[in-house]
Automatic annotation (TrEMBL):
Cross-referenced Gene3D superfamilies: 2-enoyl-CoA Hydratase, Chain A, domain 1
Protein keywords: Isomerase
Record organism: Tardiphaga robiniae
Lineage: Bacteria, Pseudomonadati, Pseudomonadota, Alphaproteobacteria, Hyphomicrobiales
MF GO annotations: isomerase activity
Coiled-coil zones: none
UniProt-recorded name of the protein: Enoyl-CoA hydratase/isomerase family protein
Amino acid sequence: MHAKTEKAQIRLTRLSSAYWRVTIDNHPLNVMGPQLVREFGEIITAVEADEQVKVLVFESAVDGFFLNHSDFKADFKELTSMPQGPTGLDAWPDILVRITRMPVVSIALIRGRATGNGSELALACDMSFASREKALLSQWEVGVGLVAGGGPMARLPRQMGRQRALEVLLSSNDIGGDLAEAYGYVNRSLPDSELDSFVDALARRIASFDKWAIANTKRLVSAASLPPDVEIAAGWDTCMASIARPAAQGKIRALFEQGFHRPGDAEDRLGFYVGQLGHGG
């Protein structure tokens, strides 16, 4: 798992046999390309194979970004040509579905931007906690003529209700920590200075409990609340079809001209820039 020719974009830290942390570290913007997806898959496989781990916390080492949108400079064929995972879904949705099903509690610690893939990861986790001052969640895809691929159309209505889900998806706007909490997008929004200690204490508390009880409780909650895989697959297929559309390609090109994919205002205030694309164009 550690023998890579390129610098690893994710780090796995075993704080104890029961409590592991996954740190996303793809500077400068934490965008998600094929290498990051491959590394994610390796880590989830390692978690599934370990009988002692009970809690997995996802966090970021990149200031301002939890996990961002896809890498639009990467070759999408490299992503789509990856073999399907054990669920029978394509690589990224497979990882997300396995996170929802594994007998391990997953917690997203969201500091910075969780856009597209980052939002999808947070929605797949069993719990998520956001920085009041620094978290921004969004599904930006509709704003550039795309359809999201990691299952938010299936997950969001079950989590926050149909109307709020449609507001999040169709506005393609950035949502701060407090509103995310009010909508049920995250469990709680916490002052940034308290976020790390809160998540660590919760993770350690759950990790001290019996794994059989944790796993069976999660299994039964999931049976009552998770979307069927066919809904996730339909979203991924529509996402892949949307990427090649001229409307999407034109809007993504326009965003690149404004500084997309580079550190700066367009990435920091992506919701604002996406909202400007249709004006005067």
